[in-house]
């Protein structure tokens, strides 16, 4: 099957969601970067569905998550923290959260990414 066809075409396109829910990590892995882009704004109707699909795989996509956390997109970081890594135990992600909490960028502060990082580190969501 061509999994590329399951990637949403626009913020309302949930046509592939049910099929995506049935896929294993190995099947979904090649399109994860494309799916992560749909978490840039959790107000998009398709975003919550994609977050629910990716959340079980969060510990397997550490490098992609860290890449986002090191980006300049504060809102994307905020949504990733709130929807994929709230309960993480991954040492690499926790190290990034420490960095954000201790040395936030102006955008991190403006988007409250640093506060979300502190909440996760404090175990507020467990």
Can you describe this structure?
There is one protein chain. The protein is mostly helical and 126 residues long. Helix content is 52%, strand content 0%. It has one domain (16-121): Domain of unknown function DUF5071 (Serine Threonine Protein Phosphatase 5, Tetratricopeptide repeat). Helix 6 (74-83) runs parallel beside helix 9 and helix 7 (91-102) crosses helix 9 (113-121).
Q: How would you state the average pLDDT, rounded?
A: 95
The multimeric state of the shown protein is single chain
> Mind describing the biggest β-sheet?
none
Tell me the strand percentage band: under 5%
Task: Describe the secondary-structure layout.
Blueprint: H1 17-21, H2 25-28, H3 32-36, H4 47-54, H5 62-69, H6 74-83, H7 91-102, H8 106-110, H9 113-121
Helix pairs in contact: 5-7, 6-9, 7-9
Q: What is shown here, in short?
A:
The protein has about 130 residues and is mainly α.
What descriptive keywords fit this protein?
9 helices, Serine Threonine Protein Phosphatase 5, Tetratricopeptide repeat, single chain
């Amino acid at each position: 099957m061509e999994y590329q066809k399951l990637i949403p075409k626009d913020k309302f396109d949930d046509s592939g969601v049910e099929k995506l829910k049935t896929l294993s990590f190995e099947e979904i892995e090649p399109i994860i970067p494309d799916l992560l882009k749909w978490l840039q704004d959790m107000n998009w109707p398709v975003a919550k569905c994609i977050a629910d699909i990716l959340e079980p795989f969060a510990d397997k996509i550490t490098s992609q998550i860290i890449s986002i956390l090191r980006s300049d997109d504060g809102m994307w970081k905020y949504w990733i923290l709130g929807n994929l890594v709230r309960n993480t135990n991954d040492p690499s992600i926790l190290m990034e959260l420490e960095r954000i909490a201790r040395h936030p960028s102006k955008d991190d502060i403006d988007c409250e990414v640093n506060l979300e990082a502190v909440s996760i580190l404090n175990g507020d969501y467990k």
